[in-house]
Every structure is written in structure tokens, then in C-alpha cells.
Amino acid sequence: MKRVAIMISGGGSNMLRLIEDMNGAHPARPVLVLSNDPQAGGLARARALGVPVAAVDHRDFPRDREGFERAMLGPLLAAEPDIICLAGFMRILTPGFVQRFAGRMLNIHPSLLPKYPGLDTHARAIAAGDAEAGCSVHEVIPELDAGPILGQARVRILPGDDAASLAARVLVEEHRLYPAVLRRFAAGDRTPILIGP
Q1: CA dist 34 → 21, 41, 105, 119, 177 (Å)
Q2: Is 129:47 a contact under the CB 8 Å cutoff?
Q3: Could you read off the pLDDT of 92-118 as tens digits, one per residue?
Q4: Annotated catalytic residue within 109, 122, 138, 175
Q5: Is 175 in the active site?
Q6: Which domains does the chain show, CATH number per domain?
Q7: Is the pLDDT of residue 197 over 90?
């Protein structure tokens, strides 16, 4: 049974889907939800589901990413995770931190990588005239949003879409894709999952 830590920054909707899926015959179970914001709404939601939570406020470490990450390692290492899932964790991690968990850290990103790494992905896809958008689950490597892709879900960009309407439809697919990828990854299978029209 793999042990999974989930890192969040906000409400944690993807975190909830991961936790809800980790039951029954699932090859993993959640052991920690960790946030960089003690007020993140997802912490209370995880606690209500019986998952241990912790928070390390990044604002206590101005211009000191390494210090912030050292503080995060305390609760992370205590939880002894086999897999770390970034689920709306809005801090860029240093190469040293990422390499410590090489091959064991996943992230979900709201674009069809390698297109549109970073922020404002939905607006960029619309501005480019793309026919489709979507989301990707990938292994985390030191380069931003550049690791091996383990799954993608596609949605059509509709006439009249704006960033908000497109984001809402992509989020539905994120909630389907991430649990499916984690289930497969925890079982030792890195074959990519493809969902879409």
C-alpha cells in the first residue's frame, strides 16, 4: 500500500477527488495534506475526511525558498510518503527539493503540455485560436511543467468561451484524470492515460 502526501494552496478540489478515490482496493492511501497557507480551505476539508494535515506559511520565509522547503520537509518526512501529489500547490519548488523526491512526485497542470506551461493557460489557449484545451498529469522534474506526461484529458474550446468557462470544463476533467493516473501510478504502471473528445 503506497503512502500519498498531497500538497495544496487553496480549496483543494483535486485533493478531495484523490482522497475520495483512495478507498477499497486502491493501491494507495492518503497520509498527509500539506499546505503553504494555514488558511487554505482544503485543510479543513481533508481533516473532515480523517486525513492528517499540516501547514508551513511561505510568508514566514521572505526570499528564502530553501528555508521554506526545509520547514516543509519536517511534516513531509514524518509522514513517510511514497508518492507526493501536487494538487493546486502554487509555489515553485527548488531543484534540490524536487530531486529529493525524483520519480515520486506528480503534478496536475491545466493545459495540454508541452503547450502553455506556467500561468494563464486557458486565456493563452483561447488567444492562440486552439481548437482544444485540457489538462495534464506529469512527473515533477526541476524544469517547470516539463516532466514525463502520465495522462491528458482534452476538451473542445467552444465559440464564446472565455478563460473562466473553459477553466470550469477543464476542471471537471482534472477531477477524472488525476485519480485515474494516481491509481495506475501507485500500482507501478506509468502508461499514459488519454481522455477526450
Answers
A1: 18, 12, 14, 22, 21
A2: no
A3: 999 999 999 999 999 999 999 999 999
A4: 109
A5: no
A6: 1-101 (3.40.50.170), 107-197 (3.40.50.170)
A7: no
